[in-house]
Amino acid sequence: MGAMPLHDLPWWRWRANVRSALHMLSDPVFHQEAWVSGVPGYGDVTDAVYRLVEDTWLDNWSAEKYVGTVFRDAQEASLVDVAVLRVLRIMHQVGPDAPVAAYLQHHGWPEAVRAAREAHARLAVNDGEDPDAPPGSLDDLTATLHTF
Asked: Which residues lie below 8 Å from residue 85, measured CB to CB, with a gap of 6+?
């Protein structure tokens, strides 16, 4: 997330958390190589969902509320809303403490991944970054969040 323009949105730290979560949720190769394999430094599905909703409360209201502060426009907000709803539906069905495999095997997971990918790609491109780069670690995110 190094190329992200840090000063153009007031709540860029919240955006960084949402972007990190969407990025991880949107990448099936990452799911296998990091989450299923248990590679340290990337958390798990529950960690990603927590980052997605912890500060923003996107589990309680629309991302539209944050246009101009976290999200650049209504299209970003709309894509994020769809991704959040799909991922949360699965989390509520399998449980927050379920193993990664339970999420990946859920019948709705491919659609949740697609929605996360659309949201991630839009946010990444709007931040001047390559949406196809692999997700960064949680240490990378922490370093970004402690900038300024």
From this structure: none
d(CA 38, CA 124) in angstroms, rounded, equals 26
Enumerate the β-bridge partners of residue 67.
Answer: 71
pLDDT at position 146, please? 87
Number of residues that make up the chain? 148
Rounded Cα distance, 58 and 64, in Å: 10
Helices (H), the chain: 12-25, 28-30, 45-53, 74-94, 100-105, 109-126, 138-145
Asked whether the beta carbons of 8 and 60 are under 8 A apart, the reply is: no
Least confident of 1-5, 83-87, 136-140, 143-147: 1-5
CA max distance for the chain:
42
Q: What are phi and psi of 35, to 5 degrees?
A: -70, -50
